[in-house]
Amino acid sequence: MRFSTRSPGAGDSMANHCTRGPVCAIASFFQMDEGTLCRDESPSRATLGLEEPVPTYSYSISGTLGALGSMLITDITQRLPGTLYDRTAQTTQRLSNEAELGESGFGDADFRKLSSRIRQNLNSLASVDVNIHCEVKGKIETFVVRGRNGRSSFSFDLNKAEKAAEGLPEGADVLQPFYDVINKILAAIVYLR
Fold first, then answer.
1. What does pTM read for this prediction?
2. Starting at the edge strand that comes first in sequence, how are the strands of the sheet with 2-4 ordered?
3. What is the distance between the alpha carbons of residues 69 and 159, in angstroms, rounded to a whole number?
4. Fewest beta carbons less than 10 Å away: which of 121, 163, 170, 189?
């Protein structure tokens, strides 16, 4: 699956009150006030070393996503110019299932044609400037970022983040550890591409 990145426009319903869409969606999971979760205190593009005009790049994300990986997709699409290819296990399996349906003769001619294109895309993946591979083991998420300038890896332990959040004062941003790791990954993406 391919996402073209762009800046949220004034017509976007979420753009007026929240720039971290999935974070707002998981607000009920953390039983927190949505306003607290939606504060965007992430560094600007300039902080990431991006100057205007910014050349566009291509990115792929693969492996298995956890909570941090889902947040990372949102940040990549909002903050880095270019095209993101979703090659995660979940998306690849879903697309493969759709292709199999069409190949088995299910659906009309348009659906079978679409299924054939899906299969072609799955079998011939586009080359990208940077690949982010994610793995989840228990509550630990590991990310390996590979680009033309090398590779870098990051780990995030949700157990440690939960324990650290228990000692925070009322109103503190419990998602700050998530944002810190995401910002490090984004900086690595910019450097390694």
1. 0.65
2. 2-4, 82-88, 57-63, 130-137, 140-147, 150-157
3. 16
4. 170
